[in-house]
Design a protein that fits this description.
mainly alpha; 68% helix
């Protein structure tokens, strides 16, 4: 049973864009006082926007290693990082030690180095793996590495599609209703939606950076 509070007023951004996404993965709060946990969580997240809450929840779901809700501080940290990335920050020195680059820095490097590849990745749907590679390796992939990224995306898509189909078959066996798709709040569907939202978000950011890069080149000419 999910620990997410049931009440979701239409204007409750935290419930609509953070708790609903998180509730598909996390089931038990840290500690024994659910009410205190969610009260504190709402208080600490109250200043974040809809887009930030969505991105923060997506990041936490993708990094999840258990079904225990993250500590409130981890949720705030994820949303703070999401806000920083969505707003964009000045590009730091490229020597950043062993830490991955922020998404926006990786996207700027990608577009600056090879805008065609960045756009092709968006069209083929492997932009998330490309961004993660550049964040981690701090360079564009070579041909062999690009093939590995594309294959990884295809395998993940097949795996997720298989999980969705298996879950749908189980639901069809438990009900007499003809179900065309999983309910939107089903844990497997929430997971699939999380991957898709991140791909869409990155595609939008890459497209904006391509336009910005093109405008800068026009000015220089």
């Amino acid at each position: 049973m999910s620990a997410v509070p049931r009440a979701k007023p239409p204007n409750d951004l935290i419930a609509l864009h953070f708790l609903s996404t998180m509730g598909g993965t996390f089931k038990k709060v840290p500690g024994s006082n659910e009410e205190a946990y969610f009260t504190s969580l709402r208080e600490k997240l109250s200043g974040f926007s809809e887009d930030v809450l969505k991105a923060g929840a997506d990041a936490l779901v993708l990094a999840a290693k258990s079904t225990v809700w993250p500590f409130v501080g981890e949720c705030v940290k994820a949303c703070t990082e999401a806000q920083r990335q969505l707003e964009g920050t000045p590009e730091p020195c490229l020597q950043v030690g062993g830490y991955p680059w922020p998404e926006q820095v990786a996207i700027k490097v990608m577009v600056g180095a090879d805008a065609d590849t960045a756009l092709s990745a968006c069209l083929a749907g492997w932009q998330a793996d490309l961004v993660d590679f550049v964040r981690r390796e701090k360079r564009m992939p070579d041909m062999a590495e690009t093939e590995t990224l594309v294959v990884a995306t295809m395998e993940r898509n097949r795996r997720v599609a298989g999980q969705v189909q298996t879950a749908l078959d189980v639901l069809r066996g438990e009900t007499t209703r003809e179900l065309a798709a999983l309910p939107p709040n089903h844990p497997i569907q929430l997971m699939a939606d999380t991957f898709e939202r991140r791909r869409e978000r990155l595609a939008g950011r890459i497209a904006k950076e391509v336009l910005r890069h093109g405008e800068m080149q026009d000015v220089e000419l």
